[in-house]
């Protein structure tokens, strides 16, 4: 069975010092709550990682980055390499969030290089895919997602299913309050699984496929109960400790 990954995405919110206090409170809140059936992860701004790393050490909470450079080192002002993020405490990095695709024009070819950089630098990539509203309305959503998967994973070999996470995030559902129905999330999860089986064979059974897009305590249980929804990538609700915990505890046991 795949352990559900309950991955927050804080985007550009909070400061390192506010995040430290938030995290200490989360760990207190977790005292006495059984979260052994899930993996807890918060993808935070890069500035927060080294502050949060000693706080979460030895706890059930992991931290990750929201982006990573495609390069290992060099004259790339403003970028952080996978090795830097790992050393600062990250174990995962989000790759190709729709906000990076939209505002930073990140292409599938670049995202492929970021997946390679994660693997070379010791981070697990969470590769985001998802269609915009017009693509969903015209029925092109599967074609879009398959194109993003083919481009992002072209030539990427895996030796362990834990070395890759896919997040299906329909762009029209991110931060809008609109959620894909659990059946739609499952339908796309199955399409992604079938692509992964074609590419990675039996390893695909262990690769986690997350759903992201206005996941909240009210819809989490139904989404997480689906066979090919192995967790969530959660934006807004992951900034609220009570909502994040309510989603985590809604995962099937
Ligand atoms: C996200 O940031 O990936 C996301 C899904 O955001 P939200 O949960 O706020 O829709």
Task: Describe the protein.
With about 250 residues, the protein is an alpha/beta fold. The chain has a single domain (about 5-250), classed as Aldolase class I (TIM Barrel), CATH 3.20.20. Helix content is about 40%, strand content about 15%. It has helices at about 15-30, 50-55, 80-90, 100-105, 110-120, 135, 140-155, 180-200, 215-225, 240-250; strands at about 5-10, 40-45, 60-65, 90-95, 125-130, 165-170, 210, 230-235. Strands 1-2-3-4-5-6-7-8 form an eight-stranded parallel barrel, surrounded by seven helices. The longest helix has 19 residues, at about 180-200. The chain is globular and about 45 Å long. The N and C termini lie close together (about 10 Å). Bound molecules: phosphoenolpyruvate.
In brief, what are we looking at here?
With 253 residues, the protein is of the alpha/beta class. The protein is built from ten helices and eight strands.
Descriptive keywords:
eight-stranded parallel β-barrel, 253 residues, globular, TIM Barrel, 8 strands, alpha/beta, 16% strand, binds phosphoenolpyruvate
The helix-and-strand class reads: alpha/beta
Fraction of helical residues = 40-55%
For the record, what is the CATH homologous superfamily label?
Aldolase class I
Query: Describe the biggest sheet?
Result: 8 strands, parallel, barrel
- Give the ligands present: phosphoenolpyruvate
Stretches where pLDDT falls below 50 for ≥5 residues? none
Task: Sketch the topology as an H/E string, one letter per element.
Answer: EHEHEHEHHEHHEHEHEH
Instruction: Using the coordinates shown, work out and report the CATH topology.
Output: TIM Barrel
């Amino acid at each position: 069975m795949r352990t559900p990954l309950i991955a927050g995405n804080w985007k550009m919110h909070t400061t390192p010092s506010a995040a430290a206090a938030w995290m200490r409170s989360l760990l207190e809140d977790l005292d006495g709550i059984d979260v052994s059936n899930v993996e807890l992860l918060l993808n935070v701004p890069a500035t927060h990682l080294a502050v949060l790393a000693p706080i979460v050490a030895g706890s059930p909470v992991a931290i990750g980055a929201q982006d990573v450079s495609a390069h290992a080192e060099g004259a790339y002002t403003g970028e952080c390499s996978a090795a830097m993020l790992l050393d600062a405490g990250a174990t995962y990095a989000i790759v190709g969030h729709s906000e990076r695709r939209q505002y930073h024009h990140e292409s599938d070819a670049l995202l492929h290089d970021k997946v390679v950089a994660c693997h070379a630098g010791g981070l697990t990539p969470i590769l985001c895919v998802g269609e915009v509203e017009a693509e969903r309305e015209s029925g092109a959503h599967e074609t879009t997602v398959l194109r993003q998967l083919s481009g992002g994973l072209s030539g990427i070999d895996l030796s362990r299913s834990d070395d890759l996470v896919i997040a299906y995030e329909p762009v029209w559902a991110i931060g809008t309050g609109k959620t894909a129905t659990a059946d739609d999330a499952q339908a796309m999860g199955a399409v992604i699984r079938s692509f992964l089986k074609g590419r990675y064979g039996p390893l695909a059974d262990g690769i986690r496929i997350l759903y992201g897009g206005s996941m909240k305590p009210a819809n989490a249980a139904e989404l997480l109960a689906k066979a090919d929804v192995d967790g969530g990538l959660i934006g807004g609700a992951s900034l609220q400790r009570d909502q994040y915990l309510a989603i985590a505890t809604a995962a099937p046991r």
